[in-house]
Amino acid sequence: MRPPSLYTHFDSKSAVIDAMFGTAWAEYLRSVTELHADLPAEPRAALHVLARHFFDFAAADLARFQLMNQRTLPDFNPSAGAYAPAEEVLGRLTATLASIGLPDDGDRDLYVALVGGLVDAQLANDPGGQRWSQLLPRAVDMYADAVGLPRIPGTSRSPSTRARSTR
């Protein structure tokens, strides 16, 4: 009996998972690095672009999202090498938020939780659909309002401030 061929490349199942984790975050890091080259200068618009980019990347692959953002594998802790791209992504987000006037780690954490929570809800409740995806612009505007970012010039209202019936 021979060991599975996968283990000729990796020492263990944990090493396979670690490599997949690192690859997923490295793939996202490459994509967001490209995105940053064309990020809008207007802060609120930049938040919308970043949120949509992460949402679409994460929602495209449930297993990858779970590996990257949820602790679904008992006792898995990524190695420093596999974790490095995730740290770079968070560092880039932190720097971007600071550059638009949001240097507080709490503002960053709220943004991450908001966008990630919508991805989680989309994948859990309407995989492949638009139910939670369509709420992303409204949620980003609510966040931007809460942290005091100015409205996008030339717009009178955001989706989060549209008139609602009181009936």
Brief sketch in words of this structure:
The chain has helices at residues 13-36, 43-59, 62-69, 80-99, 105-125, 136-146.
Which helices and strands occur, and which strands form pairs?
Layout (H helix, E strand, L loop, with lengths): L12 H24 L6 H17 L2 H8 L10 H20 L5 H21 L10 H11 L21
Helix pairs in contact: 1-4, 2-5, 2-6, 5-6
Structure explained in plain terms:
- The protein is an all-alpha fold and 167 residues long.
- The chain has a single domain, classed as Orthogonal Bundle (Tetracycline Repressor, domain 2), CATH 1.10.357.
- Helices cover 60% and strands 0% of the residues.
- It has helices at 13-36, 43-59, 62-69, 80-99, 105-125, 136-146.
- α1 packs parallel to α4 (80-99), α2 (43-59) packs parallel to α5 (105-125) and α5 runs antiparallel to α6.
- The longest helix has 24 residues, at 13-36.
- The N and C termini lie far apart (72 Å).
Distance between the termini: 72 Å
Using the coordinates above, name the CATH class: Mainly Alpha
Task: State mean pLDDT (0 to 100 scale).
Answer: 88
Class of secondary structure makeup: mainly alpha
CATH domain topology:
Tetracycline Repressor, domain 2
Give the SSE order as H and E letters. HHHHHH
Architecture, according to CATH?
Orthogonal Bundle
Question: Per the principal axes of the C-alpha atoms, what is the gross shape?
Answer: globular
- The amount of beta strand, in percent, is under 5%
